[in-house]
Amino acid sequence: MISVPNEADKSDIGVLICGHGSRSDAAVAQFSNFVGKLPDYLPNWPIEYGYLEFANPVIREALDRLRDRGCKRILAVPGMLFAAMHAKNDIPSVLNAYARKHGIEIGYGRDLGIDPKMISAAASRVEDAIAEAECSGHAVSREETCLVVIGRGASDPDANSNISKVARQLQEQTGLGWSETGYSGVTFPLVEPCLEKVCKLGFKRIVVFPYFLFSGVLIDRIYGFSDLVATRHPDIQFVKADYLNDHPLVLTTMAERITGILTGDNAMDCSMCKYREKIIGFEAEVGMPQMSHHHHVEGQGAQAPGSNVATCTLCEAFCTGACRLVMEQHDHDHGDGAHSHHHPKYPFADHPLGPESVRKYLKN
Prior knowledge:
Elements: E1 13-19, H1 25-37, E2 47-51, H2 59-68, E3 73-78, H3 85-102, E4 105-108, H4 116-135, E5 145-151, H5 157-174, E6 178-183, H6 191-199, E7 205-210, H7 217-232, E8 237-240, H8 248-263, H9 322-329, H10 355-363
Parallel strand pairs: 1-2, 1-3, 3-4, 5-6, 5-7, 7-8
Helix pairs in contact: 4-5, 4-8, 6-7
């Protein structure tokens, strides 16, 4: 249980966990299970969750539920590892619009971010994977083991750099011989080119660790490319570590982000934010309006059990990313007058070790 300030004893407070959403039923189920465990840490407040896109319920529906339960003050946090466009722009835009429309107070917390508890949770996943590999009879020293941390990947260099920091922190805590960083989409290097380069370093074991909260099509992509590269290098042992999921330290950190709204500990680190500082290659995005870009896919994707919705056959198992590349790299306007917006083009969208490498794989 997390301690809260005295003012938090008010009965009109509710909690909202804002998820990204996924086409994967497994990912949606894991997110729901995660939120279902939070009352053990924050037992005095009603807790709901909603998604930005690709799943139900959407955020405004979750807010409706809290209002129906008598909540007039909402503590909302992004259910995300780092603050990129979704946490900085899309979710606040939805929350602000809802607060204005219904006249309620919504406080917004910060992302899970770089935190000692999050690093410890990640280290335990890596250690579990190594221990399981050792039980199989393949003894490899830590000095001969390379850790590859795979992040989501974003068009925000600040969020991408956090994955590199996580990788180094994990290397320090586990004492492994080396660490490298890759990404599942948007930026570079992607999983396959990253692992191929690591294979040239001479390590006997490679531990692939997705620094993700939950399962989904991107986890399938990471593990799928890991298996693909492993078949090309049978002399190297590939070990797949599990993602974070509902590790107790992750739940503790999430609870702290919620109570932090009441104590003023909810400011995101904006020192390298591309919307505030002139980052080379992203100068045009300084001072961009805060708006959501995902209303046109709200609620689409994974549905409640029993719903009659077709699933993407590409994403049921090993996903090469073909279905997501269109959305990740598109640069478009909706000029219908009702919801016009623009996505700046990521300056490295055609990098040969990034999304372009997936396109080449698909052509072959």
